[in-house]
């Protein structure tokens, strides 16, 4: 039985010409045959770093691709390890501008929505895969209050099996190595 996986990472935003998450998405999409051989129908997307475009983009992707699992990627520049998010909170900062220089108009992602949504039990296993392949990684209980948290919250709210991986602001060989490990994590997540 073929499983469908959507890997979506954020694109560039203020202060970053290129987002490491977008680099990983582009690398994984070149591995479509490898995913197919493992029984995974891979779909990839680069998400807009824009409050008012994110929800419609995710809704469209879910309607068009109907993924069994969703692996979301973003950058957390102050972190020194991969962090796999365990929680998404119904909150967003009204102080941080997005790539379009817009701010969220409300501190809630969804009015009346649950305060917290939990990612599935695959988080510790994915962190262990990363560590086994030489990348520092750990579960995290704080996806932030920006679009990374919002994408995970919306994905879980839309009843998707979703996981969010924050990458440090790695470049060069370190980022290429991380991308190869995330490929292994993505396959495991899709098939679990």
Automatic annotation (TrEMBL):
For this protein, the record's Pfam families field holds: Peptidase_C15
Keyword vocabulary terms for this entry: Cytoplasm, Hydrolase, Protease, Thiol protease
The answer, when asked if Protease is one of the entry's keywords, is: yes
Annotated Gene3D superfamilies: Peptidase C15, pyroglutamyl peptidase I-like
Family of the protein in this entry? Belongs to the peptidase C15 family.
Concerning PANTHER family, the annotation shows: PROTEASE FAMILY C15 PYROGLUTAMYL-PEPTIDASE I-RELATED, PYROGLUTAMYL-PEPTIDASE I
Can you say what this protein is called? Pyrrolidone-carboxylate peptidase
């Amino acid at each position: 039985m073929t499983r469908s996986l959507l890997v979506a990472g954020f694109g560039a935003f203020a202060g970053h010409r290129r987002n490491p998450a977008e680099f990983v998405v582009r690398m994984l999409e070149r591995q479509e045959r490898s995913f197919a051989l493992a029984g995974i129908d891979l779909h990839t997307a680069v998400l807009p770093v824009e409050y008012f475009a994110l929800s419609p983009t995710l809704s469209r992707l879910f309607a068009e691709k109907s993924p069994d699992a969703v692996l979301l990627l973003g950058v957390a520049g102050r972190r020194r390890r991969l962090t796999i998010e365990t929680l998404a909170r119904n909150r967003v900062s009204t102080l941080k501008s997005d790539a379009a220089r817009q701010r969220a108009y409300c501190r809630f992602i969804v009015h009346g929505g649950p305060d917290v949504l939990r990612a599935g039990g695959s988080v510790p296993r994915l962190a262990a895969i990363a560590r086994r392949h030489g990348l520092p990684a750990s579960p995290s209980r704080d996806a932030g209050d920006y679009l990374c948290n919002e994408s995970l919250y919306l994905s879980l709210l839309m009843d998707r099996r979703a996981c969010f991986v924050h990458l440090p602001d790695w470049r060069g060989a370190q980022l290429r190595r991380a991308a190869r490990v995330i490929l292994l994590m993505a396959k495991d997540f899709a098939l679990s």
